[in-house]
Amino acid sequence: MIDWLVDILSYQVGSPLMFNSRMFWLLFIVFLPFYGLLSIRRNRMAMIVYVIVFSLFFYYKASGLCCLLLVARAVIDYYFVRIMDDSPNPRLRKALLVLSLLLSVGTLAFFKYTNFLLFNLDIIVGANFQPLDIVLPVGISFYTFQSVSYVVDVYKRRTQRAQSLLDYMFYLSFFPYVAAGPIVRASAFLPQIRAQRNVTETMVYSGLWLVMVGLVKKAVVADYLAQYNNLVFSMPSGYSGFECLMGVLGYSIQIFCDFSGYSDIAIGIARIMGFDLGINFRSPYKSLNMTEFWRRWHISLSLWLKDYVYIPLGGNRKGRLRTYVNLMVTMLIGGIWHGAGWNFIVWGGMHGVGLVVHKFCKSRFDSVSNLFTMCLSWALTFSFVTALWIFFRSPDFAGAMEMIGSIVADFRAEMIVPFLSARIGWVNVFLLSVIAVFLPERLYGRVESWFIFSKLWVKIIVFISVVQLILEFSGSEVSPFIYFQF
């Protein structure tokens, strides 16, 4: 019994606590009734402290003692912003803003990019630098961006500062999004902390529906497709071009189901608790151009990059050439944010190229809009996005080029039939997932409404069926969400 409690309360290296683990749902089931009791009694301060404690415990279980960095970040932000907001001295205000941003971004850069810089410096000067033993804290990229947006927004008087340190700690550490987003603005979230919470049955069942959908996306679709995708990306030269191409197509579905699945779970849990985190994905693979894709994919990041990088650089207000440069810089920063590697820089840079090309062509082709051009635009956009996933998924730039080389130089049509025969289960899951991805959005809304307003016994049957489906497809080990590494 004591050993079991120790396992629950201590951080297990290599086994971070995640939404798709049984341990998390056991803890959440214990957490929820007490949260509900505090909410019903309108005991806001006790509720805030209770959620903070659980959030920090969740983050400790996910990232160990790195949770202390999160606490330090919250304390520094809160007091810097408090002094900055109260000061009538513009120079002091700007100095505190710059210092806060340097601390936030500098901490992120140290953990995420130090070894990447040392590796490239070693190649340039041949100094035989050794990589440092640095462990990347889970979610540091996400809560750093939230920290930056809060400090900047208060500085520019776009939002009010947090009423107390506890409020800000609640905002920065909130467990549904602390590990992998979505990136939530303080202006949208802080007012919800102090607002009177009236959690309706509709909100609870809507949240439960999102949680179930997210778990199916992750545990059933993404993890199953990953079994083959991982084999191909680990050794592209060992597979024909057609097999590699199927691995790339499979990964395009895998990463969507994995990350949108996480977002669905996070938004669903928050909704059950009475919080609105917005929407983070909106059928991105239906996009007809790259601009539309980034309005549908990882929406919270896209809006963050737009508001805190693209617009401050000048946006589209300083001429066409400057607009193109701003788009490229913004997407390069987006690529580097995702990972320290040349493959991520290429991924971000090429997305920037895609946005520039669309911006250049938009005024020239908008007048020529018909079914054919729409289909062609979709095909080009989807192909471009899918091809760039090669750089995103590959372990490094060399691995990405090896994958591309295999697809281009070793595409053997005679492998199609053997592949379909040998991997019929994978093909079926892939095809069903593709159909699901491209179904009309309104259909999903109708199914969700049907579940919300159905009889209790129907909800129970649906819930048990989903749990059984997840158990059937889940492996013995819990697979981490892809965006945990960012």
From TrEMBL:
One Gene Ontology cellular component: plasma membrane
InterPro entries assigned: Ac/AlaTfrase_AlgI/DltB, AlgI, MB_O-acyltransferase, MBOAT_fam
Position of the signal peptide: none
Record's keyword terms, sorted: Acyltransferase, Cell membrane, Membrane, Transferase, Transmembrane, Transmembrane helix
Stretches that traverse the bilayer: 23-40, 47-72, 92-111, 165-184, 204-226, 344-361, 368-392, 420-439, 451-471
Domain of life of the source: Bacteria
Family: Belongs to the membrane-bound acyltransferase family.
Name of the protein in question: MBOAT family protein
Species: Candidatus Limisoma faecipullorum
